[in-house]
Amino acid sequence: MGIGVAGLAAGCLSSNSGGSTSNGSAAGGPGKTTIEVMYGLGADTEPGFKADVSAWAAQNKLTIKFTKAASWDTEIRTRVQGGNAPDVGLFPQPGLMCDLAKQKKLIPYDDATVATDKETLVPGFVEAGTCADGKVYGLPNEVSVKSILWTDAPAFKAAGYQAPKTLDDLLTLTAKIKADGKTPWCIAAESGAATGWPITDWIEDLVLRFAGADNYDKWVKGQLKFNSPEIKPAWEYFQKIAFGDGYVRGGTKSIVATNFQTGGNALFTQPPGCYLFKQATFVANKGGFPDSVISKLDTETAPIAFPSKTASDNPVLVGGDIAAAFNNDPNTLKLRNFIASKENGTQQAKNGAFSPHKTADVSLLPNKTLQTIAADVLYKATAARFDGSDAMPAKVGAGTFWTEPVKWLSGQQDLNTTLDNIDASFPKTGS
């Protein structure tokens, strides 16, 4: 979701770890008996992850040291800089992972493992873990789905509204809800010091749809400007909704003052305070929607796939954690490969986490709502991409991409100024 630092400046870490570290033995030896895995997983995902990995470790007669980082980017930098990297790390930011890969801190996956996993992974997930040298350094453990519109099922149905199939349909629906004397949207972007990041999810989803997956990749790498003809239409579409007269609960300026986790709760008031809310699947966990809604998710909500330009297309934006190895000890690599495999994720699924593998048993997910999102949205993706802001340089992805839209939505500047300011902040190639 873009609330972590997306990368580290090249050269800020020591460069003496090479292919193995001081706490790892070379591949081909007997292997370590205790393997450390470090992550920043949330309270909903961590128990299932630990259960899955512990079961695998017991079968392989290995001991796992689980280390949870409160601030992943800061703590992993400190560990690597001190020559004390964990054996395996789960990266929420592909950009940070590739920075470390560039400094020879990580071990790439072998071709056979990549080929096996690619057979079942959602299209695009292998590319997300591929760095500038063309090697795959990370593959996903689990993912959340961002391309979702949430509704209050009874209210939406009672009003006679239909799920939009295309982006044009979505604008038509928005206008109809307004014409009916109701407020179409709840949009929420307040997140303390990280206020503005939810807008990046909106824009990323729209770039995938207007520009396509290849141009999305170029944009994330800085090869296409924010104010380019390929990327600007995504912003212009969002502008039609966010600045539409009467389209947003509280008005345009309220967006940056409305909390991202609870900002959709007005869906469920009587009468509804809004009818549409775009947010990732984590909002259906405690701390997001009201407990009374979460306990009856299948009847209280009716999530809709965020529509594309054409009904036949289904690009999907995700967040997640990518498994990478810091040394080539054989048991380190076995653990990393298991985490990325289709065999992993049984217990995580029971806690509501999505496997990145299309062959996963969706019936393990705890409710029909999540099962439907997995089967009909994630596993039917024509192209999936990880959160773009997490892969951009930190001063953009966790900087101006957050702060400049806040100024725009607050009425301090126009769209062109917003996009030009973000472009001006993007580090020049090679810097």
UniProtKB/TrEMBL annotation:
Protein name, entry field: ABC transporter substrate-binding protein
Protein family per UniProt: Belongs to the bacterial solute-binding protein 1 family.
Pfam families, alphabetized: SBP_bac_1 (PF01547)
Keywords associated with the record: Transport
UniProt xrefs under SUPFAM superfamilies: Periplasmic binding protein-like II (SSF53850)
Gene3D superfamilies: Periplasmic binding protein-like II (3.40.190.10)
Record organism: Terrabacter aerolatus
Domain of life assignment: Bacteria
PANTHER family registered for this protein in UniProt: ARABINOSE-BINDING PROTEIN-RELATED (PTHR43649), OSMOPROTECTIVE COMPOUNDS-BINDING PROTEIN GGTB (PTHR43649:SF29)
InterPro entries, sorted: Bact_solute-bd_prot1 (IPR050490), SBP (IPR006059)
